[in-house]
Target: NADH-quinone oxidoreductase subunit NuoE
Amino acid sequence: MANRRLAPAAEQPQDFAFTPENADWARGQIAKYPEGRQASAVIPLLWKAQEQNGGWLPQKAIEAVADELGMPHIRVLEVATFYTMFALEPVGRFWIQVCGTVPCDCCGAKELKASLHERLGPSGKVTADGNFSWLEVECLGACCNAPMVQINQDYYEDLTPESLNKLMDDLAAGRPVKVGSQIGRVSSEPKDAVNTLTDESLFDGSRVGAWRKRFEQTEGADQGGESVKKDEAASTEARVKDETKPARPSAGRANESNAVDAPAERASAGETPVKPEDEAQARDAKAAPTLDPAVVEDKVLRTEPPHHPATVGAGDDVPEGENPEARADAAGTRPKGLDTPRDDRPDDLTKIKDIGPINQRRLNDLGVWHYDQVAAWSPPEVAWVSAYLAFPGRIDRENWVGQASDLAGSRG
Model:
């Protein structure tokens, strides 16, 4: 891979600006991302700038994209110089990008590069007739059909030096060319002999329903074996009963304990079955206070259920099952909405505390797209939205109107 650098100053245009059509397209791309995330549109805008400029990116185009997105020039330059799909120097009418990564290299990319070098000269140089230039690039994602090249927007796969030269002859002469595999391969099917799925019954439908025949053939044998299974179960149950072990007084003792604590074991060992300290513990247990059942019952009956304050809000008189708009109409006045956001650039309503992505979508469905719309809500409109979103009192508590007013003011 060659170093990535901008074209010499002598080849750079003095300025760059999107055409009106492309400028509208760029604004549409930017609008796809939320407020503060416009930089995410940098790659599509660079691609459109390259397309408009005849297939390569001059410095002024990179700077124009940076200004459009409010990004430092160096950040956009970093993107443009990283991705090999962006040409930083003038290219021919047919720009040939040769994949040089491992799969293509193993399958013949070296021969393709040698052929291009012989016919067109060094990479990055435009031929005298302006038709061709070529460059080795990183993986183009068609590894199964290696080796391959990308010429302008199209992929040409399963190439040899001979087929690549014929392809260039046809392009230069204006003859139609075949896109994709040059050996008739469909998608990424095997190139040579097929080694898998050779049994047609796997995919010709003949096996449909075959499971039923197998089931019917084995069902009788399964039923015949039921009596054997029952006999085996009875035998196992009887054996478990016979092998039941007698209970041991020390069965509840921890495994690591070797102490003999049970009175019966003490007696068999010649010790006093009941020790004085055991009697003292028993007396203490009897002396422990007990709860009178009547007192307990009285306390339970007198215990009040936890208090849950009733939610008082608009729409309480709406029958259960009523739709949200009907509930809201009974509460207040619906705020006026917009069919679409102004300039196709909606505000990020999630910047208002307590509004998440779901409620932002619901507000958008009501035609609420901008901070100034929320800031202008009157009390009846707040009541309507509160009932619609099932947020009684929440809009006032979180001060949506005040937050929206601050956000609208910060935008100037």
About this structure: Residues 94-181 form a domain with the Glutaredoxin fold (CATH 3.40.30.10). The beta strands are 94-99, 132-137, 149-151, 154-157, 180-181. Residues 295-319 have pLDDT under 50 and may be disordered. The two ends are 48 Å apart (CA to CA).
